[in-house]
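Input:
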Amino acid sequence: MYSDKVMDHFNNPRNVGEIEDPSGVGTVGNAKCGDIMRMYLDIDDNGIIREAKFKTFGCGAAVATSSMATELVKGKTVQEALQVTNKAVMEALDGLPPAKVHCSLLAEEAIHAALWDYAEKNHIEIEGLEKPVSDIEEREETEHSL
Amino acid sequence: MDIKMKELIYLDNAATTQVYPEVLDAMTPYFTQYYGNPSAIYSFASDALKAVSEARKILSEGIGAKPEEIYFTAGGSESDNWAMKAAVEAYAAKGKHIITTKIEHHAILHTAQYLEKHGYEVTYLDVDENGMVSPEAVVAAIRPGTVLISVMAANNEIGTIEPLEEIGAIAKENGILFHTDAVQAFGHVPLDVEKMHIDMLSASAHKLNGPKGIGFLYIRQGVKMQALIHGGGQERQRRAGTHNVPGIVGFGEAAKIAFREMDKRNAYECALRDHLIERVLAEIPYSRLNGDRTNRLPGNASFCFRFIEGESLLILLDQNGICASSGSACTSGSLDPSHVLLAIGLPHEIAHGSLRLTLSEKTTKEEIDFTVDKIKEIVERLRNMSPLYEDFVKKNGKA
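Output:
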């Protein structure tokens, strides 16, 4: 059901992990729907994304789109990163099954959320960036004895 | 192909099973040799008719019914649809209320929803944290207009075996029809339509090493029932269509083996399943068993692993040659977590991390141990990329 590229990025995800003291970090999605993406960005003084890392809870497509999104934003300027749309992520992965298109939207949102955090921290405004619509839901600490 | 098959570890026997070679052998002549239509008059067709009667007898004896109470269908979903739709139609004068549960298979739930759109009222009973339906809740849900109670014999996802005997007694006492979806239970655990006061029972051959596309609905003598499929006079004019003779023969043969081997098979599968459950719970932190620990199908082990998502786990297991499922196979196309796991009270995020392994008598301890080793590796790998786990560890430390 997945393309070879999706399987490759799922099996060998690029840039998994965290960045300490990131320039920006954003978490989108919610556990209720089964997908949470967190993206960390390290942005230098010239506004260039030096490093991007991610952590994702979700299906194969969610992992692959996160991985691809980090690859696509690395080395780009903040403005260029803003142009990395869900369509771009999907195309880079040779497509996604219809039921999984929302994963690519989540990847786009994760980039935006991390950039939003970067902008807030630095008290700047990034032209064309709107506050991400979806953010991680307040999760109740589950009482289950797992 | 052979090598690949050998490497395959098939742990999805609740989805479907391998057809036994002896079942296939029994079926083959009814494709090529005794291909006559059992409804025909000439003597050539009588072999086919005899074979259908023999299978009907085996199947009826397996549940303590009479042969003429077995109606062949194309499978479990058809039987469930037929039982619900026809029974409520036949008893519409008495009332329009149905009692079922939140953990039924979609063949029941979606039929119930269809009936709701057509003027029926349905009570969906809650279950406890192990997926057990309470007989008291059944009593409490009964109204003057209740015409049907449908409770599954055993749950397909979490394996919990329901208290059919108690529920059947309640149904009988109140003069209400009792149907059970026994697709997962038939041929696996003992069922007795007399002892359990069952009026209708759905079963399917491919869950017990028989062929796909053949099932039956048991209908107690005296129960008023409309036909679902109109046409010829087959199945006492209640289910038209030329008999699927090879399928019926295969179903009979599979049931014969299943009933003969049940005790031996259950002892083997329960021991292996318990070994699997014990290893997973002991070796993988933040894991849980879904379903009742003791009242469960011999081959079923259903788990949830916190902080990870089931599909990712399934893909990685598949890459190791392991076939498993997350929730019901029918659910995997949708984005919502399994309705069964939500009904036993699991939060969405935990329900998303579910894994169902269903064994057969051919599953070996080596296969189970290999599978547990792989699950451990994969769960750890997925947790290491999970933001939920990251947050949890930051707050609580590592397990």
